[in-house]
Amino acid sequence: MSSEAKIRLDRVEKKYHGTSVPAVEELSLDVHEGEILVLVGPSGCGKSTTLRLINRMIEPTGGKIYLDDEDVTTVDPDKLRRRIGYVIQQIGLFPHQTIAQNIATVPRMLKWDKARIAARADELLHLAGLDPEIYRDRYPKELSGGQAQRVGVARALGADPEIMLMDEPFGAIDPITRERLQNEFLRLQAELKKTIVFVTHDIDEAIKMGDRIAILGERSVIRQLDTPERILAFPVDQFVDDFIGAGSTIKGLNFEQLSGLRLGGYPTIRSDQSPQAGLEALNESNKTWLLVVDEQNRPMRWMREGDLQQSTGSYQDEGSEVRIRLNAEDTLFDSLEQMLQSESGSCCVVDRHGALTGVVEMAHLRRAIRRAQVEARRHYEDLEDNA
Amino acid sequence: MDGFSSWFAYVGDHWSDVLTGTLEHARIVAIVVVTATVFSVILGILVERHPAARAASLSIAGIFLTIPSLAMFALFIPLVGIGNPPAEIALFLYAILPILRNTVTGLDSVSPAVVESAKGMGMGNTQQLLQIRLPLAWPIIMAGIRISTLITVGIAAIAVLVGGDGLGGFIQGGLTRLGLPNSYESVWVGTIFTVALGLVLDILLSLAQRLTTSRGLRI
Ligand SMILES: Nc1ncnc2c1ncn2[C@@H]1O[C@H](COP(=O)(O)OP(=O)(O)O)[C@@H](O)[C@H]1O
Ligand SMILES: [Mg+2]
User: Fold this and answer.
1) Which of A12, A13, A14, A16 to mutate to test the pocket of ligand 1 (most atoms within 8 A of CB)?
2) Matching CATH number, B2-217, of 3.20.14.10, 1.10.3720.10, 3.40.1650.10, 2.30.30.40
3) Where does ligand 1 bind, in terms of residues with CB under 6 Å?
4) E-assigned strands of chain A?
5) Given pLDDT bands bounded at 50, 70 and 90, which one contains residue B2?
6) Cα B48 from Cα B133, distance rounded (Å)
7) pTM
8) What's the complex ipTM?
9) Optimal mutation site among B111, B114, B117, interface A, most CBs of chain A within 10 A
């Protein structure tokens, strides 16, 4: 079991000097290779303390921490930290050094040769989306907050560490830039596949960034540890439920694609068929709306019974236009948003040629939510039975 | 006008003495400032993170500045005899506070996030100090060195009273002959060349400060 854990905390405790209550109490946790594990919890619950124990910025007062099955307390702490990327909210770029020098900090300590260091700095600037020609010789004060944060991440990646520790890395950035940095980072991670422990107090950021999320309570006690989908579908207790806050069901819709839905039949007619045929199709189903599709089966117009009765058979400008078409890879959340805007209350799903593959209705979403909740509950019941 | 021309005449007549006096003065200042800088920066580094030691060393350095200079210079004669040494020791003690205080303040001013990230990337204490904390504190330390230099240049004129060299000779010589011909000229020569020396040294140090401060730290 420990072989797949890249980082392993075993009943770790941290009691700060002069305090009686530990900041971290008996914490056991495995971080798997290549995953982003998010530690999320209210301010002061011990997230930063937990993170800083891993690279020995502080020493535990109990328990063991292993990286690759190696007890970290047996390693020289400075050498250990050079193998672990560390990003903090305030970034902490060195103001007296150029961007390239900042990024080269760890390679320089590892005594790489000059040419290799310069090449690595340029490579990382590229990775961070900053043109080396422009930014290499700039100083940190000449960067915007978002750029500085990119450089902070690039610097942590300096010597290509396998592990990254990130403490609220996007916490001090304006919401729009934060969203962009989050997306960039997720794209980067899809390539790099680092093992990442990511701290945040923002549940939405946790849901977005985490492969798994550990929701922490006081003294860094794990209240729930699971995938974001399962936590949203089945918060184990009131604390977690409160922490996730309102809208957890809707947030959960982000994690399922339309391809996962089984969409039943929907009344349609081709545009060369008569309105009479349409009325028959509509009556056979028990739906309110019918779709008119063209010769290539592409959805064109929504029609109601009344629209069909008055139809001339050309269907141009009759009923209402089909404006939005989603693909199988879009999420249930995307479809919900479209359904709320659409007059028919449903949403067309098409293949890559634009041909209709199905129509999503509210009942589908309700069923999907129910299914996710039942699955998550069963998962926890199984866990309990096995325990 | 008459005062000025007689002053210039006096400088012209005593040019080589004035030059010697200025160079001796500068030499005393240089010795004192260099030793005080080395001492105070090292002390500052050692005490910065230890509140008790830090408060104690700053208070003691402060007390040195309150001891009247005349007494301070004389105090060291029994130990090192007369001449430049007692003067240099006294000046050294005066020069400590500005450099020590600015070293401590400068190190304090380094952002904790910068130190945290340096440590987090695997820099040891010495690397953090030499590569990060001192370079960042340097402009403030330099400002302290400049203040100490100016204080030392001024007070060094008293060295003559304990048998030391420097421009103080012109001032003392003038004062003992006050009213006699050339007495005021002598006092003025001592004063003006002392002030000029202070200005020149300050300009040199400000240049050095610019050259030794990273472009990333300049405002
Ligand atoms: N250096 C320290 N000395 C004493 N107590 C500390 C120290 N750092 C953090 N704490 C305390 O430990 C608890 C957890 O802090 P922290 O890990 O920073 O929380 P979080 O990152 O979740 O906001 C808090 O109660 C905090 O006051
Ligand atoms: Mg924190």
Assistant:
1) A16
2) 1.10.3720.10
3) A 16, 19, 23, 43-49
4) 5-14, 24-32, 36-40, 62-67, 70-71, 84-88, 163-167, 195-200, 212-216, 222-226, 268-270, 289-293, 299-304, 320-321, 325-326, 347-350, 356-360
5) low
6) 12
7) 0.87
8) 0.89
9) B117
